[in-house]
Recover the amino acids of this structure.
């Protein structure tokens, strides 16, 4: 994923987490992964892959393609 697209997705994830008042530990529990897994992806230390988008979107009650849309 390009840096610009990855940053847009990471921003969108943080916005959606804030809307739902979720921290990384809570999102990780919903996604069935460790909080380190979530944290590394949110900080850009680990590249986001399509499967990651699907997992995180599902945990947030969204469709994966919604995470690709610019934040409003």
């Amino acid at each position: 994923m390009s840096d610009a697209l990855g940053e847009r997705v990471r921003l969108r994830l943080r916005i959606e987490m804030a809307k739902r008042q979720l921290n990384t530990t809570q999102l990780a529990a919903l996604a069935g992964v460790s909080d380190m897994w979530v944290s590394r992806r949110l900080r850009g230390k680990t590249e986001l892959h399509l499967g990651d988008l699907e997992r995180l979107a599902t945990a947030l009650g969204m469709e994966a393609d919604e995470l690709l849309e610019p934040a409003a």
Q: What stands out?
A: Residues 10 and 42 are 5 Å apart (CA to CA). The mean pLDDT is 93. The domain at 3-61 is CATH 1.10.260.40 (434 Repressor (Amino-terminal Domain)). The helical segments are 3-19, 24-31, 35-42, 50-59.
